[in-house]
Amino acid sequence: MTDFKRKRVVVTGVGAITPIGNTPTEYWEGLISGRNGIGEITRFDASKHACRIAGEVKKFDPCDYMDRKEAKRMDRFSQFGVSAAKQALADAQLVIDDLNAEHIGVIIGSGVGGIKVMEDQQAVYLHRGPDRCSPFMIPMMIANMAAGLTAIHTGAKGPNSCVVTACAAGSNAIGDAFRIIQGGYAQAVICGGCEAAITPLSVAGFAAARALSFRNDDPTHACRPFDVDRDGFVMGEGSGILILEDLDYALSRGARIYGEIVGYAITCDAYHITSPVPGGLGAARAMSLALKDGRISPEQVSYINAHGTSTPANDSTETAAIKKVLKKQAYKVAISSTKSMTGHLLGGSGGIEAVATILAIANDRIPPTINLENPDPKCDLDYVSNNSRTQVVNVAMSNSFGFGGHNVTLVFKKYI
């Protein structure tokens, strides 16, 4: 893509359903106050599980956004995605009609899709036979349905797809939407991620992989990114959605602009199915390429919303990657992991973390990393521990890394 063809892309709306708030306002207030959304699992009997804690969405009623019949035909991950998308459209005051529908797309990523439906229907199959399986099982289960149903519910007829890159999916979706608008293939895209994987089988699987925290007796302190006592991530659920628009289109309709997305890069470690490559070389390359894509120098970066999973391998590796890219500037940049409050939404994490990043820019306020009490000597950067910080945020990066070696970095900046 030649430079003269690159369109500027801005963020005009946000939607968020999270363990610390079911609207963007509640979510942001939860972030800056250091609210903890992690507790004992209530969605199923986890008494026999090695891990019995998670960041669950509370008091969510999909019927606030759709009728009951429609809600019953969706897995919870799609309910989250469609609902957050409707929030974001309302926030952007973007009305989809016959004039613009073909120019508005939807890209929503998910790591595992409708795993709850799959588990439930497997039980039906085993105990009641194949003829008793629901005719809605497949369209409720497949990961692309959050994007498809969002289009059905909003009327968006432009480019539509689903990214499935594990914990990088939400950020990949936002980056792909950015590229589509940059290239002139859409005027606006509803994009982000959603996940609802707090289920018996999913929790058991991640626990068996030794990826989760087993701090069952102290759930509020279980997720502790960059802390020497971290022992694994805590699962979360929910959805984060952005409305991205061609700047000219946004201005033509008088849209409020939160900020601008200017950089996106994806790389692969090509190393291991779950572990990052030592030294964070793949993550560093994603950050470096995203900054280059946005024409941003290391000295311009104000804030990084880290992947920060609270696993022994990720946090030290991400720290090393940041140092490799930013060099001396790494010690001057504010960094935080909002997963410390929400848990890890897997494919939905990039969505809610992009919302956090753009709101940090819009409000000049940096969310904290809670539970950071005993910093790991290998993690020696400024992680904005335990309390939010008022600071001008001109440029911010959001990192997402997924099983399989997927690395994604997004770069946002103030709109001028």
From TrEMBL:
One of the record's GO cellular component terms: cytosol
Pfam families on file: ketoacyl-synt (PF00109), Ketoacyl-synt_C (PF02801)
Pathway: Lipid metabolism; fatty acid biosynthesis
Name under which the protein is recorded: 3-oxoacyl-[acyl-carrier-protein] synthase 2
EC number: 2.3.1.179
Active-site annotation: C167 (for beta-ketoacyl synthase activity)
Residues in Ketosynthase family 3 (KS3) domain copies: 6-414
Protein task: Involved in the type II fatty acid elongation cycle. Catalyzes the elongation of a wide range of acyl-ACP by the addition of two carbons from malonyl-ACP to an acyl acceptor. Can efficiently catalyze the conversion of palmitoleoyl-ACP (cis-hexadec-9-enoyl-ACP) to cis-vaccenoyl-ACP (cis-octadec-11-enoyl-ACP), an essential step in the thermal regulation of fatty acid composition.
Organism: Richelia intracellularis HH01
Family: Belongs to the thiolase-like superfamily. Beta-ketoacyl-ACP synthases family.
InterPro entries, per the entry: 3-oxoacyl-ACP_synth-2 (IPR017568), Beta-ketoacyl_synthase (IPR000794), Ketoacyl_synth_AS (IPR018201), Ketoacyl_synth_C (IPR014031), Ketoacyl_synth_N (IPR014030), PKS_Beta-ketoAc_synthase_dom (IPR020841), Thiolase-like (IPR016039)
TM region(s), chain numbering: none
Superkingdom of the source species: Bacteria
GO molecular function terms noted in the UniProt entry: 3-oxoacyl-[acyl-carrier-protein] synthase activity
Biological process annotations from GO: fatty acid biosynthetic process
SMART domains reported in the protein's UniProt record: PKS_KS
PANTHER family for the chain: 3-OXOACYL-[ACYL-CARRIER-PROTEIN] SYNTHASE, MITOCHONDRIAL, POLYKETIDE SYNTHASE-RELATED
Keywords tagged on the record: Acyltransferase, Fatty acid biosynthesis, Fatty acid metabolism, Lipid biosynthesis, Lipid metabolism, Transferase
